[in-house]
Amino acid sequence: MFFERPESPRILENDYLDFFTRVHFASVPLLFVPITLFGLTYSVIGAGVSIPTTLGLFVIGWFAWSLSEYWLHRKLFHWQPGGKWGEQLHFWLHGIHHRWPSDPYRLVMPPFVNLTILVLVATPVLWVAPKLGWGFLAGYTCGYMYYDLMHYYLHHHKPKLAYLKKLKAHHMNHHHNKTEQRFGVSFILWDRVFGTMQ
Predict the structure, then answer these.
(1) Do 11 and 97 contact (CB within 8 A), yes or no?
(2) What is the enclosing helix (H) or strand (E) of 186?
(3) Among 49, 115, 163, 165, whose CB has the most other CB atoms within 10 angstroms?
(4) Residues in contact with 189: Cβ distance below 8 Å, sequence separation at least 6, in sequence order
(5) Interval 41-87: pLDDT, tens
(6) pTM of the shown model
(7) What is the DSSP string of the chain?
């Protein structure tokens, strides 16, 4: 199969289904740059929110994503319910990544997963704040995009900047440390706040 290689092994027998277990990292900006730009534009032009307020909501949305990233990784991706079904659920949610951390096609979330998360977040946000929600969602979406691309970068590149070197060391420690620690991928802040830095 086209994508199959030692670092990206087959995990399903069916060629078609196995193909959809992989995704190229470029799918993230292809999907989420237009969504982010739409949110910012609609906030100002469609909802009539001022540019400074929209930018403030954008920052709040990005900050909210960083907290979501931490808690999703800590509580959902590392959740291991008992029994055989629990093992399978954990494997499909996050175990694949920990088993093959250098797999270039299984480092970003597939579109059906990240778009589902976006809909689950956007629905209540726009219900509660139909005008102010657009700027917030643009920031949340951009924060997600930063996280997914940063995750890919940390696994496949050698950072030159000190901050990125620190971020890579932090994330590699998460992969190689046997304790459940260091859940922040694109931000270290929440590991400090919630005491998961060891």
Answers:
(1) no
(2) none
(3) 49
(4) 66
(5) 999 999 999 999 999 999 999 999 999 999 988 777 766 777 776 66
(6) 0.86
(7) -TT-BTTB---SSSHHHHHTT---TTHHHHHHHHHHHHHHHIIIIIS---HHHHHHHHHHHHHHHHHHHHHIIIIIIT---SHHHHHHHHIIIIIHHHHSTT-TTSSS--HHHHHHHHHHHHHHHHHH-TTTHHHHHHHHHHHHHHHHHHHHHHHH----SHHHHHHHHHHHHHHH-SSS----SS-SHHHHHTT---
Could you tell me if 18 and 12 are in contact, meaning their C-beta atoms sit under 8 angstroms apart? yes
The crossing angle, in degrees rounded to 10, of helices 51-71 and 133-156 is 50
Q: Where are the chain's structural domains?
A: 15-148
Give 173's contacts (C-beta < 8 A, 6+ positions apart). Answer: 181, 182
* DSSP-derived 3-state class of residue 8: strand
Q: What would the pLDDT profile of 116-144 be if each residue is shown by its tens digit?
A: 989 999 999 999 999 999 999 999 999 99
Q: Say how far apart CA 75 and CA 93 lie, in whole Å.
A: 11
Q: State which amino acid sits at residue 13.
A: E
Given a contact cutoff of 8 angstroms between Cβ atoms, the answer to whether 113 and 18 are in contact is no
Name the residue type at position 65.
W
Distance CA 86, CA 33 (A): 35
- Helix/strand/coil for 5: strand
